[in-house]
């Protein structure tokens, strides 16, 4: 190498032929680097557990049933036109946000204690138990976390105290999300095991687990919770409004029945008596009844309007493709990753050679200055 460098410095040029000959001379070191990188990659592949991927599809249907024109016609027929039923627009969640929403802690929190069946446990276990007790990791995962484990052996109380603080926060303020160490780890792993993509009006849901049945079960759980969660988000305001009006309608109905009963009792008790004072009292009771009935009738119309609005705003999501039990593992991809590690090793071997060449060239150059 030194002879090649001195010759190149003297002639102020590098001959490709000489460079190729030098590479051939150093091919042993290039091969050693390439084999080393490939061996490290092989360790990763051999210590990684098998993963099975399940896919399913949800079809996001357009709001069917009553469209705006139909609602307008119904409003004019039932006398609800003055309430603006035909002009209501329901705000829907933008479908493009759904893949991001699924990975949010607020949503994943609902999956933490859902159970999937594991052969290894011979029972159904929660996702928190799976991640913290049954999930297997490759060699490098344990190697990277070895210093932290050694440190925790000497400081065992730190994590316990942190978990206690997290739990107290979650109980004190429900508006703030707080998780213990096991739950945080589970949420982080779920983000790696769940993938949702939007394809036009289809939601493609992929889940990954080390066992086929667990993968399919997680996919079904995710699809079900996603439909419920989206429905809750979209209808939350409308449902609260409907429940409020429904409660007021029930109260108004009770008042109508009470005033109607008072009026009937008054008429039965004073039948055949001709008195202007009694006539005035009867008119007052009748006016109270008419007022309460008018309020009840108006609330009943608003409740019907709110019910139709909720039904029209409900996101229609149907299962387009059910989760299917996978038969072959999707990971690790031995052939693909083997080629990648081999090529990467060759590239790093060549870079190692050129790095060594440049370093030696600079050393010789500055030694003669």
Characterise the protein shown here.
The chain has 369 residues and is an alpha+beta fold. It folds into two domains: 1-48 and 332-369, no CATH class; 51-236 and 317-330. The protein is 66% helix and 10% strand. The strands form two sheets. It has a four-stranded antiparallel β-sheet. Strands 2-3 form a two-stranded antiparallel sheet. The chain starts with a helix and ends with a helix. This is Lipopolysaccharide biosynthesis protein. One of its GO terms (cellular component) is plasma membrane.
| Principal-axis shape | elongated
Beta-strand fraction estimate:
5-15%
Bin the helical content.
55-70%
Number of helices: 13
Radius of gyration: 36 Å
Tally the beta strands: 6
**How would you spell out the order of helices and strands?**
HHHEHHHEEHHHHEEHHEH
Please state the structural category. alpha+beta
